[in-house]
């Protein structure tokens, strides 16, 4: 009887212990993740999240995505209100975002070589304060096989001319023609593929249903972009 009681108490304690430990561990992970994201997105403090050492697989705090051979992992999210910067990760490396302090209002665009995965250029286009010419010139540098990653912030539409919308459509966007002021837009496409991209989201701005009153919620895509062979 006494022995049984002891076993019972010990088992209960063990269960509680394991339970506590697992809860704390997941909490710790959550906290670290949150810390990374906050540091990364809100330009408050700049911490290299790799150095936290807690998330080895989260290179530069991109949510790590394992992709098959001949695919490039990517993660894109739009900015939120005037608080969270847009972010573009390619091959599990942050190319644009809060931590880099190079993303901004308007459109954030990364170009990569679709065969090698080499990032060629990245730039923010604030179309509120500047004309569309610079963006047009940037898009004209595209070569067949280039991957294009886009994340909007605040408003992607000022001076988004029909000509520019046509170029994004040619890159595989099916939603760019429906973009309205203050919508959120994330997109990944490529030049010369000539088919609709599966990697695109449009978050409609609607004051009745917006997550943040004047602003829609964050748009996000995480995926594996197929490597483009040189001959295509
Ligand atoms: C992409 O990531 C892999 C794995 O981390 C790395 O080996 C490779 O060099 C990267 N490619 C480029 C072009 O950065």
Automatic annotation (TrEMBL):
Q: Where does it localize?
A: Secreted
Please provide an example of a Pfam family that matches this protein in its UniProt record. ILEI
Q: Indicate yes or no for the key word NADP.
A: no
PROSITE patterns in alphabetical order: GG_LECTIN
What are the residue boundaries of the ILEI/PANDER domain, all occurrences included?
Answer: 105-192
Q: Which UniProt keywords apply?
A: Disulfide bond, Lectin, Membrane, Secreted, Signal, Transmembrane, Transmembrane helix
* Superkingdom of origin organism: Eukaryota
Query: What GO MF terms are annotated?
Result: carbohydrate binding
Q: Which parts of the chain span the membrane according to its record? A: 6-25
Return the GO cellular component terms, semicolon-separated: extracellular region
The similarity annotation says:
Belongs to the FAM3 family.
- The protein in question is named FAM3 metabolism regulating signaling molecule D
Organism, per UniProt? Cyprinus carpio carpio
């Amino acid at each position: 009887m006494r022995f049984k009681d002891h076993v019972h108490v010990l088992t209960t304690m063990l269960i509680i212990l394991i339970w506590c430990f697992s809860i704390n561990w997941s909490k710790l992970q959550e906290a670290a993740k949150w810390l990374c994201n906050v540091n990364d997105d809100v330009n408050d403090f700049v911490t290299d999240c790799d150095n936290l050492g807690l998330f080895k697989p989260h290179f530069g705090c991109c949510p790590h995505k394992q992709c098959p051979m001949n695919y490039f992992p990517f993660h894109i999210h739009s900015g939120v209100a005037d608080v969270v910067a847009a972010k573009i990760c390619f091959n599990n490396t942050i190319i644009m975002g809060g931590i880099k302090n190079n993303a901004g209002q308007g459109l954030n665009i990364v170009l990569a070589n679709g065969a090698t995965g080499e990032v060629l250029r990245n730039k923010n286009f604030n179309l509120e304060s500047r004309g569309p010419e610079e963006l047009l010139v940037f898009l004209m540098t595209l070569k067949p096989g280039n991957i294009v990653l886009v994340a909007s912030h605040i408003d992607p539409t000022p001076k988004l001319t029909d000509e520019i919308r046509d170029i994004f459509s040619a890159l595989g966007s099916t939603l760019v023609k429906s973009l309205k002021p203050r919508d959120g837009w994330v997109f990944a496409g490529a030049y010369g593929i000539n088919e609709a991209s599966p990697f695109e989201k449009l978050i409609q701005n609607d004051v009745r249903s917006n997550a943040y009153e004047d602003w829609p919620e964050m748009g996000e895509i995480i995926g594996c972009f197929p490597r483009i062979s040189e001959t295509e």
